[in-house]
Specification:
Order of helices and strands: HHHHHEEEHHHHEHHH
Oligomer: single chain
Distance between the termini: 38 Å
Length: about 300
């Protein structure tokens, strides 16, 4: 174990922190939708993929970076609105299994549309390349995206907590998550509140698209798919029912992957997913409610 940590340099540590920050952002979006709708949205990765393709198109059209990012947010938010309006809202009174299958269907639909439209080889987004350039800090080259990812994650989590605990919209979101029908009877416009939660989740997906595309400019139809599966495991690991534990779970699994991926020899890196998921299973056997959830904690937002 000591020998392993001796192989970790500052560059690997910075990259692991950046990946943990990005995964934490994904965990916030996934945990928010689950907290309000009691739904694991498996189409979340495809929202990230759509935003990444928007960035790639902006690069292809020689748009300025800021305009490509605006296009990314517009595409992801539009898809999030359509997802809520034509999938979540009509099926909201159905069983969780029905909604879960619906998100699978949407995920595969978006992936196949991307493959038909852009081809299996995908496109390259080059407009965000400056964010991947390093800053030299105390003699260590740390990529700008590493610092940006960590800072944005902290800000987004703080804003989400303020929204949920200090605003009327947040109170309505919590009421809708407790009992959708009763909230409507008490005057809460639950459909509007839940749509707002879905749009916030979409905005976070757009931020993740920018971060991941900066690190990996090649955008393919399965872009962010593996990341979404890993983050879902991290959300369950941290505590699916509460935003902060879910975010900590996403950060933890991202940090672990970044640290092990940078430290392990190249010929052993293919075993990394197996090791991570085995560790998740072992932790859940001991703490089935989540690693960062107190046993007496409430299960709602």
């Amino acid at each position: 174990m000591i020998a392993f940590f001796l192989t970790v340099d500052w560059q690997t540590l910075a990259d692991a922190l950046a990946l943990g920050g990005i995964y934490a952002l994904m965990a916030i979006g996934i945990g928010l939708v689950f907290g309000v709708l009691r739904l694991v949205n498996f189409a979340y990765g495809q929202l990230v993929m759509a935003g990444a393709f928007a960035l790639a198109l902006g690069s292809q059209w020689n748009w300025p970076t800021w305009l490509s990012i605006v296009l990314c947010f517009a595409v992801v938010l539009a898809l999030s609105f359509l997802l809520d309006r034509f999938v979540f809202r009509p099926l909201r009174t159905q069983s969780p299994a029905v909604m879960l299958v619906a998100t699978f269907a949407v995920a595969f639909l978006l992936q196949n549309i991307a493959q038909v439209w852009f081809g299996s080889l995908g496109k390259i987004a080059t407009s965000l390349a400056p964010l991947n350039q390093p800053w030299t800090i105390f003699g260590v080259d740390i990529r700008k995206i590493s610092i940006v990812a960590i800072a944005v994650t902290i800000v987004c989590l703080a804003l989400l907590q303020l929204l949920l605990t200090r605003t009327s919209v947040g109170l309505h979101m919590r009421a809708a998550s407790q009992d959708f029908e009763t909230a409507r009877l008490l005057g809460v416009k639950a459909n509007r509140v839940i749509a707002f939660a879905v749009l916030i989740s979409g905005a976070l997906a757009a931020v993740v698209a920018v971060m991941l595309t900066t690190q990996n400019p090649l955008v393919t139809p399965d872009f962010a798919l593996q990341d979404t599966i890993v983050v879902l495991a991290g959300v369950v690991l941290g505590g699916l029912n509460r935003p902060i534990p879910a975010t900590l779970g996403g950060f933890s699994i991202g940090f672990a992957i970044g640290l092990l991926g940078g430290a392990l020899p190249t010929n052993q890196s293919q075993y990394l997913p197996s090791f991570i998921f085995a560790a998740v299973i072992l932790v859940l056997l001991v703490r089935p409610d989540g690693l960062f959830v107190r046993r007496s904690a409430a299960v709602r937002l």
